[in-house]
Amino acid sequence: MPEGRCAMVLVNVESLVIGLLPMPSIITLRVAEHREDIPEDLVLPIWIGTMEATAIAAALEGNATERPITHALTIDLVGSLGGNISRVVIDRVEGTTFYATIYLRCANGMFTRVDARPSDAIALAARANAPLFVEEDVMRSAACPRALTPGQDEQIELEEFDKFIEHINPEDFVTHSGGKD
To answer: To pair with 63 at 20 to 30 A between CA atoms, which of 134, 157, 166, 178?
Structure first.
């Protein structure tokens, strides 16, 4: 890898669809910063469980609970030991299984890594306001181009129709055959 080139791609959560059982939930991550070597229209879809999707949604929305849930408890534990979550990296994919690593900054300034499921790692990153990265190799092998989502294509059609209507004249409907239509 050329010197100075980052092997990780900064991503954000683009969408989260919580499936009702038996349907899985899906989270899509999108490129968060412009890079010449990674197309900006790539998204990384990851299928996750319904409970995990609900935890991520709560973290993204900043929902507080009366008692700490697992991810909030984990953040509190790390913080009470003088550490913090510095970043989360989705660093590998095998078949359809993704793997993540949580990077913790310890009280002594040293870093340690913890293996995690991507769903837990994303929920922790959201609660800790920590950056979320995907390894370039994972992005290149498992990401796909963002397609138009349902509704977007209809919106485009409506916009094109509006432009057509704006430029139409009554004379455009005059028949030249002399007969009735």
So the answer is: 134
